[in-house]
Design a protein that fits this description.
six-stranded parallel sheet, five-stranded parallel sheet, globular, 15 strands, binds iron/sulfur cluster
Length: about 450
């Protein structure tokens, strides 16, 4: 049994030349699991070279909603050139789509690769042959990459799969997290789940060895954790594992960064400060705090009640002054029904203040109420908007958190204007790393669509 696994070209990449080069850790994890199960995998990254499909089975990774239209086009191209194939789609956004929605978007010969039972059935293997992602080493998949590709990936920041899942349940978030079904009210509790630590360590040691063979002297890792300090006991073990790899490679540098809630950071500082201290020693130097708006009312409205003004300010201060790390302000704001001019202005002012006071780095994003997998996607109040997206899949791009508010995502004109105003102001703050993009909406003329696509070229998010 053979399958081609494809990392699609970034949706803002230029038509020609290399696209957005970034080690595709999600797809490599899926590859390693399939290789372990005895499937012959050929790996492709359309950001590096044009796609050449040679199997009857083709699997794609979708990193988020903006990739839905890209994968639809890619499938059509493959079908036109090579005839019918069996397609698998994976990546977390796929789990947010119902079977009906998946069929409408991608057709009936496309299956949900995130579901192990479906994956096993399609690939004709025993589901037991699929080892859990937490127990999967990525080395078999890394070994399938050419040295040229590996060199490109290791020369840039890339994601290290350390843990998955978050105990919180913010409304706008589509990650693997605690979840309350808006239709049935049923709550699915999620806890952060770590990968087997010896496997992480062996994978990291392998990557360091590879990097050294290319003459590189450092790796820049973006931890996959959604909230780095959520499980301090495991974090401490991870920090020791990284330090051991560093000890074995004395002249080699490992830098790490990751995302966190201010709540978990402050709890870890209180209950297990060594987890932060040892992580810093291991090379962790930047933490992106999910501030995501400002004021108690806004956080309550988007179910991010674990934030408070005091906790945010203390975590940002402490990050810089007590631990010598750079705080990043991950500001998903412009919440369509929760924000007001006052709260938007306050979010802007506080970000400005912490840049000056603590050298914080602003990372503004625009909240989107409905994204496959978040609470709003299945809520009846957004069913018309969801239907519009299913009819005009190109508009899934407008759900990109770096896309300006549009009439589709922010129907209230006044909030749309204000959210746009403050998002753009945030993007002008010193040190800002967000390159905003223009949204593709269902009603654009061909001329407008061309202009938007041109504007968005190479404006990648980090
Ligand atoms: C690294 C990372 C990035 C990197 C790039 C990663 C890359 N090229 O691989 C960068 C920084 C570029 C990035 C960008 C974005 N990201 Co990002 N990213 C991550 C991060 C931190 C880690 C990904 C990872 O390594 N996961 C580990 C692997 C093991 O897990 P996995 O993704 O769940 O994949 C499993 C399954 O889905 C399945 N699978 C995956 N693909 C396939 C394919 C096949 C064929 C099969 C069978 C199975 C399969 O197998 C895997 C193993 O079980 C995650 C957070 C997280 N914890 O996952 C966010 C995350 C995936 N990103 C997310 C988003 C939204 C984005 C953006 C769209 C943000 C935005 N601007 O709106 C952008 C992309 C914008 C654009 N226009 O392209 C969301 C996705 C939510 C969702 N459900 O849609 C996440 C979960 C973050 C979050 N807190 O919400 N991201
Ligand atoms: S936004 Fe952050 S804290 Fe909230 S559920 Fe998502 S990952 Fe967890």
């Amino acid at each position: 049994m053979k399958i081609d696994l494809v990392q699609p070209r970034h949706n803002y990449a230029l038509k020609e030349g290399v696209g957005h080069i970034y080690m595709p850790t999600s797809l490599l994890t899926a590859s390693a699991r399939l290789l372990n199960a005895g499937i012959d995998v050929t790996f492709h990254d359309e950001n590096l070279r044009p796609l050449e499909v040679s199997s009857d089975y083709v699997g794609f990774n979708l990193l988020g909603a903006p990739y839905i239209p890209e994968v639809i086009k890619l499938q059509q191209r493959i079908k036109e050139e090579l005839g019918e194939k069996k397609f698998l789609v994976g990546g977390q956004v796929v789990s947010g789509l119902s079977t009906h929605q998946l069929g409408r978007l991608f057709g009936n010969s496309t299956y949900n690769g995130n579901d192990d039972f479906i994956l096993a059935r399609v690939m004709d293997i025993d589901v037991k042959a699929l080892i859990s992602p937490e127990k999967t080493s990525l080395i078999p998949a890394y070994k399938r990459l050419s040295d040229d590709a590996m060199r490109e990936y290791l020369s840039r920041e890339f994601s290290l799969y350390v843990s998955q899942g978050c105990k919180f349940s913010c409304d706008f978030c589509a990650a693997v997290r605690t979840y309350k079904d808006p239709a049935t009210g049923q709550v699915t509790k999620v806890k952060e789940s770590y990968r087997n630590q010896s496997i992480i360590k062996a994978d990291l040691a392998y990557l360091v060895g590879k990097a050294k063979s290319f003459g590189l002297d450092k790796l820049q890792l973006y931890m996959s954790n959604l909230d780095v300090f959520q499980t301090p006991t495991e974090l401490l073990r991870f920090a020791y594992a990284v330090s051991e790899v560093k000890q074995d490679n004395p002249d080699f540098k490992i830098n790490l960064r990751g995302l966190a809630t201010v709540d978990s950071f402050l709890r870890a500082r209180e209950n297990m400060p060594e987890s932060i201290e040892e992580l810093v020693k291991a090379g962790f130097n930047t933490v992106g705090f999910g501030v995501d708006g400002w004021t108690k009312e806004v956080w309550a409205a988007v179910k991010k009640g674990h934030n408070s003004e005091e906790k945010c300010l203390e975590a940002i201060r402490s990050t810089r002054e007590d631990f010598g790390m750079t705080p990043e302000i991950l500001m998903v704001f412009g919440h369509p029904t929760a924000d007001t001019e006052e709260s938007l202005g306050a979010a802007y002012q506080v970000t400005r203040m912490v840049i000056g006071a603590y050298g914080a780095v602003p990372r503004p994003h625009v909240s989107k109420d409905f994204v496959p997998g978040n609470n709003g996607w299945r809520s009846p109040e957004h069913s018309d908007a969801v239907e519009s997206l299913l009819q005009h899949p190109e508009a899934f791009q407008s759900l990109d958190f770096t896309a300006l508010p549009s009439p589709l995502t922010h129907p209230n004109e006044r909030i749309r204007e204000l959210a746009t105003k403050y998002f753009l102001k945030m993007c002008e703050l010193p040190g800002n790393t967000t390159q905003y993009v223009k949204p593709i909406t269902p009603n654009l003329t061909l001329e407008e669509l061309k202009e938007v696509k041109k504007f968005n070229e190479s404006r990648f998010d980090r």
